[in-house]
Design a protein that fits this description.
The complex is a heterodimer of chains A (337) and B (347). Chain A has 337 residues and is of the alpha/beta class. Chain A is 40% helix and 18% strand. Chain B is built from 15 helices and two strands. The two termini of chain B are 26 Å apart. The chains are: A alpha/beta (337), B mainly alpha (347).
Chain lengths: 337, 347
C-alpha cells in the first residue's frame, strides 16, 4: 500500500525559503514535512540559514518511507549546484548511490537524525545517539522497578515492520539498559527473554500505538512495562491501557522529547522519555555546510563515536539514583530545541 | 406455447435458465446476496483462529476488541460503498475524515467554540468536501478517480496547513471537550466491551442498508451505478443522485473523524493515512463490485471485520505482520474473482 501511494505521489514538496541571493546554498531533505519532528528540524535550519546568509531550499518525502521523492530531491539539488545537502534518509541503504552522485558533484552531504548505511557514506552525521537514548530509559525503568524488574512483563511497541535503523537502535538500547540479552543486535523481535511478552508495530502514531498495544494486551493482559518508539505511540498505548482500566499500574517509557510528549510526562501518561534535539541537528548542519563552502573542511565527529552526537536527556518526574535526568518543566523549555 | 419448450432461443428470454446444479445455485446466491460470501468467510476465519488460539481469541473480549479495531475503517467503508455502488471510487475518504476531526478539535481549542457546535462544523466540513467532489463528478463529468485523487491531496494539505501539524492531547480533550471523545466511551456486557463508536458503526450500516434497499433514493443509487444511461432514461435524476451520494459519503467520513477522536483520545492530523486503501479493501472483500450497481454495506462491514480478524489472529499467532498484508492481498483478488464469476449469471 505504501509503495503504491509513494509511486502515485513521487512529486516532492518544494519551497524556496530564502529569496535573497547568497553565495552559499544548501538543501534540506526530510522524510516528511508533516511530522512535527521534521517541522522543528526545518525551522532550526531556516533560522540558522537566515542568520548565516545561506540560501536554503527544503524538500520532503510524501510519507515516511518515500525514498523516491528523496532521490528526486537530491537530483534537483545537484542540478541547482548547491554547496551542501542535509538529508534525513528514508531508505538508509537504497539512497547511498544517489548520495555518491551528489558527492561526486562536489556537494557536502550530511545525514541528520538517521545515519546512512554505512554511516560513512555521508560526509558527516548529526544525530541523536538512539541506542544511548533507548539505554537511558531502559536503565531508568530497571532502576525504578527495583527487584520487580526480574518479574517484569514487557510489551514493545516498535515503529515500522521494515526495522528502520532508528527503531532498531532505540529498541536494542532499551533492552540493553533493562538488562535483557540481545540476539542479533541489528534486529528487534528475536530476543528470547521470558520477560518479553511481545513486539508489535505502531507506525510511530497514536493510531498505531493504540492498536499495537491492544494486540499486545491480548497476548498477556498483565503487561506492566511498555516501551514505545516515540511519544505519539506511547499516547496511543495509554489509551488502550485506559480502556482496560490499567493506566495507573503500567510503566510507559518512550523516546523523543517533543513538546506534547513532555506534557504527557508531566501528566503521568509517560513515566520517562529521552529527549532529542532536531533543531540542533539542523543548525549544526547549516554551519558545517558554510565551513565546507568557505574552507573545504568536513565536520568533526563526537569523540568515540562515528557521528556528531547532538545529545539526549532523560526526562522524568521520578528521578532515580545514579541516573542523570531533567524534569518535565526543564524539558518543556527546550523541547525539540 | 408448447413449441416454446423446444425453441432454443426461448431460453434467452427467460430469467430461470433451468440450471439447478449446486454450483449454479451457489452462483445465484453470490449474485443475489453479495454479503453472504464475506459473512461465510468471516465465520470460517473466526472458527479457524478460535481453533488455533483457543479462548484467548475466541472470547467475548477479543471478538469485541476486533470490532473496536475495525470501527473506523468500518464506518468509512459504508461511505466508500455508497460511492462504489455508483461505479465511482473515493480516494479522499481518509483525508476528509482526519480533516473533519482536526476541524472539530481546533474549532474548540483555537476559537473557543462550544464543542457541540465544533462537532457540527466538523460534520459540515466533511459533507462540503464530499459535495464538491460530487459536483465535479456529476456536473463536469470528470472521472471520480481523478476528482477524488485531487480532493485527497487538497484536503490532506488543508489538514496539515490548518492544524500546523499540532496534536491536541487526550488529557486536554478530556478536561475541556469530553464530547469529542464520545465515541471512545465504552460499556461492558459480561466480558464483551463495546464502545459507542462500534454501536455507531453497526447502527449506521443498518440504517444505510435499509435506505439502500427500501427507499427510492437507495434503488436509484443502484440503478445509476448499474447503467447511468438507462437510469436517466427511466427518469432518474442521475446528477442529483451522484451529488447526494458523495455528500452523504463526506458526512459519514466526518462521523468517522469524530469516532477517530474517540479511538485515539487525541486529535492527530497524521492519523488515517491509509484509510482510503483500507476502506476500498473492505468494500472489495465485502463483495461489492468495483464496476458499480451491485453490493451491500453489510458486506463491507463484514469485509472490514475479516481484515480485523486476520490482523489480530495472525498477530496473536506471533507471525510477522507482513503475512497479514499477504493474506489481505490474496483475499482481494479472490473477492474480485468471485465478483466476475457471479456477474456472468447476469450477462
Amino acid at each position: 500500500m505504501k509503495l503504491g501511494i509513494a509511486a502515485l505521489f513521487s512529486a516532492v514538496a518544494f519551497a524556496p525559503l530564502n529569496a535573497q541571493a547568497a553565495d552559499i546554498s544548501a538543501c534540506l531533505i526530510t522524510k516528511t514535512d508533516t511530522n512535527p519532528f521534521y517541522v522543528a528540524m526545518k525551522n532550526g535550519a531556516m533560522q540558522k540559514a537566515e542568520e548565516l546568509g545561506v540560501e536554503l531550499k527544503s524538500y520532503a518525502g510524501r510519507i515516511d518511507g518515500d525514498s523516491e521523492s528523496q532521490v528526486s530531491a537530491i537530483e534537483a539539488c545537484i542540478a541547482d549546484g548547491v554547496n551542501g545537502i542535509m538529508l534525513t534518509p528514508s531508505d538508509t541503504r537504497g539512497i547511498v548511490p544517489t548520495v555518491k552522485k551528489a558527492q561526486d558533484a562536489g556537494i557536502l552531504v550530511l545525514a541528520l537524525d538517521t545515519p546512512l548505511d554505512p554511516i560513512d557514506a555521508a560526509d558527516g552525521t548529526f544525530a541523536t545517539d538512539n541506542f544511548a537514548a533507548g539505554e537511558a530509559i531502559g536503565k531508568w525503568a530497571k532502576a525504578s522497578l527495583g527487584d520487580e524488574a526480574a518479574n517484569a512483563k514487557i510489551g514493545l511497541l516498535n515503529g515500522l515492520v521494515s526495522q528502520s535503523s532508528v527503531g532498531v537502535l532505540r529498541n536494542q538500547g532499551f533492552l540493553t539498559g533493562f538488562g535483557i540479552d540481545l540476539e542479533d543486535p541489528n534486529k528487534w523481535g528475536d530476543e528470547e527473554d521470558s520477560r518479553i511478552v511481545g513486539n508489535d508495530v505502531s507506525q510511530g502514531s497514536e493510531q498505531g500505538g493504540r492498536t499495537g498495544m491492544e494486540n499486545l494486551l491480548q497476548i498477556d493482559p498483565m503487561i506492566n512495562v511498555v516501551y514505545a518508539i516515540n511519544e505519539p505511540a506511547a499516547a496511543g498505548a495509554y489509551e488502550a491501557l485506559k480502556a482496560l482500566g490499567r493506566e495507573g499500574d503500567v510503566m510507559v517509557v518512550a523516546v523523543d522529547g517533543g513538546c506534547p510528549g513532555v506534557k504527557n510526562v508531566k501528566d503521568g501518561v509517560i513515566n520517562a522519555t529521552a529527549q532529542q534535539y532536531p533543531l540542533r541537528m539542523a543548525s549544526h548542519g547549516v554551519e558545517a555546510i558554510v565551513e565546507w563552502a568557505k574552507n573545504g573542511t568536513k565536520p568533526q565527529k563526537t569523540e568515540g563515536k562515528d557521528f556528531f552526537d547532538t545529545g539526549v536527556n532523560l526526562v522524568t518526574e521520578e528521578p532515580v539514583d545514579g541516573l542523570e535526568s531533567i524534569n518535565s518543566e526543564e524539558a518543556a523549555g527546550i523541547c525539540w530545541g | 406455447m408448447a413449441d416454446r419448450e423446444k425453441d432454443p432461443l426461448a431460453d434467452l428470454t427467460t430469467f430461470d435458465r433451468g440450471r439447478h446444479t449446486l454450483l449454479d445455485r451457489f452462483q445465484n446466491l453470490v449474485h443475489a446476496q453479495p454479503a453472504a460470501i464475506p459473512l461465510l468467510v468471516l465465520v470460517l476465519a473466526i472458527a479457524a483462529f478460535g481453533l488455533l488460539l483457543g479462548g484467548k481469541f475466541f472470547s467475548a473480549f477479543a471478538l469485541t476488541l476486533i470490532l473496536q479495531q475495525v470501527m473506523i475503517v468500518g464506518i468509512v467503508a459504508v461511505a466508500q460503498t455508497l460511492v462504489i455502488l455508483t461505479a465511482g471510487i473515493d480516494l479522499s475518504v481518509g483525508a476528509i475524515m482526519v480533516f473533519s476531526s482536526v476541524v472539530m478539535g481546533h474549532c474548540t481549542f483555537r476559537y473557543g467554540i462550544p464543542a457541540e457546535v465544533a462537532v457540527a462544523i466538523g460534520l459540515a466540513t466533511g459533507a462540503f468536501c464530499g459535495a464538491v467532489s460530487g459536483m465535479l463528478v456529476s456536473l463536469l463529468r470528470l472521472p471520480p478517480f481523478i476528482v477524488t485523487l485531487g480532493m485527497w491531496q487538497i484536503v490532506l494539505a488543508s489538514n496539515f496547513l490548518y492544524s500546523s501539524n499540532e496534536t491536541i492531547r487526550s488529557q486536554d480533550l478530556a478536561e475541556h471537550a469530553p464530547i469529542l471523545q464520545f465515541f471512545g466511551e465504552s460499556f461492558r456486557i459480561g466480558g464483551a466491551v463495546f464502545t459507542y463508536g462500534v454501536i455507531a458503526m453497526v447502527l449506521l450500516a443498518a440504517f444505510i442498508h435499509f435506505v439502500l434497499n427500501k427507499t427510492a433514493w437507495g434503488r436509484h443509487v443502484y440503478a445509476v451505478g448499474d447503467d447511468p444511461v438507462a437510469a436517466q432514461l427511466a427518469g432518474i435524476n442521475t446528477r442529483g443522485v451522484l451529488i447526494s451520494v458523495y455528500t452523504v459519503a463526506g458526512l459519514i467520513c466526518a462521523i468517522a473523524g469524530w469516532a477517530l477522536i474517540g479511538r485515539l483520545g487525541s486529535v492527530s492530523p497524521t492519523a488515517g493515512q491509509f484509510t482510503n486503501i483500507e476502506s476500498i479493501t473492505a468494500v472489495v472483500i465485502g463483495g461489492t463490485s468495483l464496476f458499480g450497481g451491485r453490493g451491500s454495506v453489510l458486506g463491507s462491514v463484514f469485509g472490514a471485520l475479516i481484515v480485523g480478524v486476520f490482523s489480530l489472529g495472525l498477530r496473536m499467532l506471533g507471525t510477522d505482520p507482513q503475512w497479514t498484508y499477504l493474506m489481505i492481498g490474496a483475499l482481494i483478488i479472490i473477492a474480485v474473482g468471485f465478483d466476475q464469476w457471479a456477474r456472468r449469471i447476469a450477462g
